[in-house]
Amino acid sequence: MAEYLFRQWCEERGKGDWTILSAGVGAVGGRPAADNALEILDSPEIDGRGHRSSPVTEERVARADVILGMTRGHCEWVKLGFPAHQHKIHLLSSFSSEEGERETSVPDPIGCGLDVYQDAASRIKHCFEGLFEYLLQMEGG
Predict the structure, then answer these.
(1) I need a labelling partner for 94 at 20 to 30 A (CA). Which of 54, 67, 74, 134 fits?
(2) How far apart are CA 11 and CA 17, in angstroms?
(3) What is the pLDDT at residue 76?
(4) Mean pLDDT calculated for residue range 17-43
(5) Fold of 2-139
(6) CB contact set of 117 (below 8 Å; sequence gap of 6+)
(7) Cross-strand bridge partners of residue 69
(8) Higher pLDDT residue, 31 or 84?
(9) Separation between Cα atoms, residue 14 and residue 91, nearest integer Å
């Protein structure tokens, strides 16, 4: 869900050439997006029906410029599994425009109701401006 929302947000700001991918620390590869995630993404600009889950792998971690975890547990899992890439790993909420959310995890909504997905999407979107500015700085722009 975050992948598709942020990709659309970047495209609207002229950065459609950025590669934005998602992977899950507990993901089984090849699974479709959850129905509630598709409900959140339901818009003319975003079609998540072709999404298939991907697990976090050494190759993906090595190729990434930035790795974002929705929860502290996700970040710690990646840091422990791929210690050479710790410098790339950030808690997504550290980019939030909402001061009270900056150091808190965005609860993973997998298996929860639509209201939990809506809350997660809202909290994820709060991070887009700060994350976008960070990525622009990394890019040198």
Answers:
(1) 54
(2) 8
(3) 97
(4) 91
(5) Rossmann fold (3.40.50)
(6) 1, 34, 36, 37, 39, 40, 109
(7) 91
(8) 84
(9) 25
Q: Which amino acid makes up residue 36?
A: N
**What contacts 15, CB < 8 A, 6 or more positions away?**
132, 135
- 37's tokens: 């995630």
Q: Which residues contact 122 (CB under 8 A, 6 or more apart)?
A: none
The owner of tokens 């965005």 is 106
**Whether the predicted pLDDT of 29 surpasses 90:** no
> Greatest CA separation found in the chain?
40
Gap between the Cα atoms of 57 and 55, Å rounded: 6
Please state, in angstroms and rounded to a whole number, the distance separating the CA atoms of residues 28 and 12. 31
Output the pTM of the full model: 0.90
Model confidence band, residue 99 (pLDDT cutoffs 50, 70, 90) = confident
